[in-house]
Amino acid sequence: MTKQKTPMVLLSGLLCDQRIWQPVADQLTDVAECHIFSFAGFDSIEAMASHVLENSPGKFALAGHSMGGRVALEVYKQAPHRITHLALLNTGVHPKRDSEVPGRRKLLDLADAKGMHDVCEAWLPPMMGPEGLQDDALMADLTNMVTSHTPAQFNGEIQALLNRPEAESVLASVVVNTLLLSSEHDAWSPISQHREMQALVPQSILVAIDGAGHMSTVEAPQAVADAMRQWLKQ
Fold first, then answer.
1. Which of 45, 122, 210, 223 sits in a 20 to 30 Å window from 129, CA-based?
2. Is residue 41 within 8 Å of 15, Cβ to Cβ?
3. At 46, which helix (H) or strand (E)?
4. Exposure on the CB side of residue 191, measured as CA atoms within 13 A
5. Position 179 pLDDT exceeds 80
6. Interior/surface letters 82-93, b for 16+ CB within 10 angstroms, e for the rest
7. How distant, in Å, are the alpha carbons of 27, 70, 189, 194 from that of 208?
């Protein structure tokens, strides 16, 4: 008898699409039926979450990367009875910080003045670990992904992040098996931040990926897939 695969929904982050999750999904085809969502054209976390719920199977394992982690928590808030497992990768639950706003607005101004290629050159390299940064093919793929977005789509996602809903209490309410994952060189969403998140979820496990930066799912897809495979078994 063929073992039934777990329905799994994978949520992409800022300026990302299915390319950010595909290398991991490809490693999990034997255990999961993956559905990848991205959010170009949306301007609120709540609307992103509603879209996911409207277009996903009844019950499913849920994983979000970066901004997608915040969307995942909003999905859980809106329909906790539909989530069987929760994974939050390279993300956070803290509210908007005053120090966050100028940097995001600077990138929006750059998008309007120069276009998305200049945004990519400023935004993407600091997101990468040293090995990923030296991988020319990977950097070309990620550049194509980022520059496939328009300035208007970028603005919408930034507005969603700047007006994001409160998330700490949602994380504290989670009762399903939870994976928290970050990477050695992720300066934006460091391992220490995920350790603080773990204190809110007693049933969670924390995995640290060596060598990778913020884009763990494409920098170290095998290591991320291995962690998610163990998570799905719980």
1. 45
2. no
3. helix 45-54
4. 13
5. yes
6. bbbbbbbbbbbb
7. 19, 19, 12, 9
User: What is the C-alpha to C-alpha distance for residues 73 and 185, in angstroms, rounded to an integer?
Assistant: 24
Q: State the DSSP code for 70.
A: H
Q: Mean pLDDT throughout 4-31?
A: 97
104 within 8 A of 155, measured Cβ to Cβ: no
Q: For 100-141, write each residue's pLDDT tens digit.
A: 999 999 999 999 999 999 999 999 999 999 999 999 999 999
For 79, list phi and psi in degrees, rounded to 5.
-150, 65
Q: What is the CA radius of gyration of the chain?
A: 17
SS3 60: strand
The answer, yes or no, to whether residue 234 has pLDDT greater than 90, is no
Residue 55's Cα: distance from chain center in Å? 18
Rounded to the nearest 10 degrees, the angle between the axes of helix 67-78 and helix 45-54 is 60
User: Can you name the residues that pair with 89 across neighbouring β-strands?
Assistant: 65, 181
In the numeric block, which tokens belong to residue 232? 């799905």
Q: Which amino acid is at 63?
A: A
Q: What 3 state SS string does 134-202 have?
A: CCHHHHHHHHHHHHCCCHHHHHHHHHHHHCCCCCHHHHHCCCCEEEEEEECCCCCCCHHHHHHHHCCCC
For residue 2, give the 3-state DSSP assignment. Answer: coil
Residue with tokens 């394992």: 61
